[in-house]
Design a protein that fits this description.
There is one protein chain. With about 150 residues, the protein is α+β, with helices and mostly antiparallel strands. It has two domains: about 5-80, GMP Synthetase, Chain A, domain 3, CATH 3.30.300.70; about 90-145, Roll (SH3 type barrels), CATH 2.30.30.100. The protein contains three helices and ten strands. It has a five-stranded antiparallel beta sheet with strand order 9-8-7-6-10. The termini are far apart. The model has no long low-confidence stretch (mean pLDDT about 95).
């Protein structure tokens, strides 16, 4: 099994869903980030991830990383929510963001801001100005969720 699948098993054991893992550098520090989402939905939206759940998950993942480090050298483990505004880089992440507002840059350079209704195979279904529209995942150049303040 891969490190990500092992981490995914641990995430599921605390009733959360793995959004992504990434390695980032901030200044001189290397950070291994694990982004998780709640599996609980309220009023059509995912509930926030609690700090206690992130701490519990950190304690579960840390021993695994002692045996199978994600990078060579020193790093810091950071477990948390990927945030209300986050990049969408896979069809799975689109599926996990159903019910949220998304901003898309298409391969023809057009931009779409819409509500993500559902994902079926490689089709992304959106509500744009009260009408349903579908786009092919392969036509999306950049995507992110966004929040209107």
């Amino acid at each position: 099994m891969s490190l990500e699948s092992d981490i995914n098993s641990l995430v599921q054991s605390v009733d959360l869903e793995l959004f992504d893992t990434s390695i980032v550098s901030e200044g001189e520090e290397t950070i291994y980030r694990v982004g998780v989402l709640s599996t609980e939905v309220e009023d059509g939206k995912r509930k926030p991830v609690s700090l206690d759940a992130c701490v519990e998950l950190t304690h579960l993942i840390s021993p695994l990383l002692d045996v199978t480090p994600p990078v060579s050298g020193d790093y810091r483990l950071e477990v948390g929510s990927p945030g209300i505004e986050r990049k969408l880089t896979s069809i799975k992440q689109f599926s996990m963001s159903t019910g949220e507002k998304v901003s898309l840059l298409m391969s023809d350079k057009s931009k779409i801001k819409a509500l993500l209704i559902k994902v079926e195979d490689s089709k992304i279904f959106l509500e744009v100005d009260g009408e349903e529209k579908s786009v092919d995942y392969g036509e999306i150049t950049k995507a992110k969720t966004y929040f209107e303040w």
